[in-house]
Amino acid sequence: MSIGTPGAPAPTAAKPERATKQQIRRAVYAGGVGNFVEQFDYGLYGYMAPMLASSFFPGGGGAGAVLSTYAVLAVACVFRPLGGTLVGRWGDRVGRKKALLWTIIMMGVSTALIGALPTYQQVGFLAPLLLVVIRTFQGMISGGEYVGAVAFIVEWAKPNQRAYYTSYASNSCFLGILCGAGVAALVSTLFEQPQLESWGWRLPFLAVLPLSLVGLWLRSRIEETPEFLRETNGGTDIVRSPVREALREQWQAILVFCGASIMLAILSYTWVTYYPEYLVSELGLSRSQALLSNLISVAVLMPLLPLAGKLSDRIGRKPMLISGAICCIALVPLAFAIGELGGFGAAVGSQLVYIIPEFFLTGIVTTCSAELFATRTRFSASAIAYNSSFSVFMGVTPFVAALLVNRFGTIYAVWAYLAVAAVLALVVITVFMKETYRSELSANKFA
Q1: How far apart are CA 235 and CA 237, in angstroms?
Q2: What is the pLDDT of residue 418?
Q3: Number of independent structural domains in the chain
Q4: Residue 321 pLDDT more than 70?
Q5: 6 part of a folded domain
């Protein structure tokens, strides 16, 4: 099983006239497995934040230590644009497949290393420093993983089914989060609190390494995308400076994607990372109840996303995004109000309302991250756009949400934060965004 050599051209494999369903399915599995690993780690990190806080920061599991744990997540995501740009440049030069083989290896190793780190009680301030270094490296690699996987799937998919197939990339993320929450709930149930804080929290992080090996095997079995091979003459006519060309020729598309996607980052990572902790610390639910309520809402959303993809393939991307932005403004405060009624049922009900804007936005923003950009520099351009907006706000949102609630004493401060991003998105989508659902992948949409 070869994972390629950096700088080597992509193989000149023959392009099929039309991708078969089997090839597309294999591309979806190969692309989605890395997203699963990434989000399993991200969800696990968020759900295990109190245990990590007691292991890596002074002050035990108090609010300050938990905030510090979220801050590490935010710092790591700040470096995602740099890492994503480097991986994206590589993916445009050597091919999607080779870049994605390397990213899944490095993500698996770095996640497993977190499970092997010494604690603050053992080595003092070296412990949080090592955690920051590993999370930063991991963030840089993840910055290229997701956009590369989406480009891989979109370039294999049939033109009239791009959003449908890409919805499974989004679902692989939610499946990772779902499994992260499930594993967090499982270890919280199996181990007493002292055992959990001492060593039990390490096991899920260590388990990511064999998962990554499975992903490596899946990705080694799929060919390079037909779209990439066609646009680069089998990998021989590549762009010499894809990042420079992307910034020069596709800067408008990059800015449009940034303006449209920030709201989804805030919406999603308030929900899956911060809200379960809010249910415990502010509304008095047990940790197992909070995690279970979140699991239920994620499980309900997952089968709906392919339906959203099919709808978008029929009516377009812009109507879906506009509907989602309006739902962010109108329905999220209702969701928070239901949650504040208290109890497990209210927690589930609040999140079932919360996922309505997720239905309209999640898979569609994902599809746009590939469709807005021309093939020859798609990996680089989408990495710059996605990581300059979505990834940064993905990382800072749990920290900002916790800070806003601590400062203002209400969850509605988080809604105000989201509403500002949703209003910005409405303006960008209605005024500046061009419809992409029937466009040629190779074209520059803003030329």
Answers
A1: 6
A2: 97
A3: 1
A4: yes
A5: no
Residue with tokens 């029937």: 438
Kindly indicate the confidence band of residue 64, based on its pLDDT and cuts at 50, 70 and 90: low
Whole-angstrom Cα distance, residue 218 to residue 398? 32
Compute CA distances 417 → 220, 356, 397, whole Å: 42, 18, 9
CB burial class (10 A; 0-12, 13-18, 19+) of residue 14? exposed
pLDDT tens readout for residues 322-338:
999 999 999 999 999 99
Confidence category of residue 6, pLDDT binned at 50, 70, 90: very low
User: How many Å apart are CA 88 and CA 363, to the nearest integer?
Assistant: 21
Instruction: Identify whether 149 is part of a domain.
Output: yes
Q: How far apart are CA 404 and CA 406, in angstroms?
A: 5
Cβ neighbourhood burial of 431 (10 Å; 0-12, 13-18, 19+):
exposed
> Which residues contact residue 318 at a Cβ distance below 8 angstroms, ignoring those fewer than 6 apart?
429, 430, 433, 435
- Looking up residue 66, the CATH number of its domain turns out to be 1.20.1250.20
333, part of any domain: yes
CB contact at 8 A, 426 and 330: no
From the CB of residue 35, how many other CB atoms can be counted at a distance below 10 Å? 27
Asked if residue 3 belongs to a domain, the reply is no
Residue range of the domain that includes 141: 21-432
Judged by phi (left if over 0) then psi (alpha if -120 to 50, else beta), residue 232 lies in alpha
Task: For residue range 254-296, list pLDDT tens digits in order.
Answer: 999 999 999 999 999 899 889 988 999 899 998 879 988 988 9
| Of 101, 94, 87, 96, nearest in space to 3 by CA | 101
How far apart (Å, rounded) are the C-alpha atoms in residues 354 and 333?
9
The confidence score (pLDDT) of residue 8 equals 44
- Mean pLDDT to the nearest integer, 293-316: 95
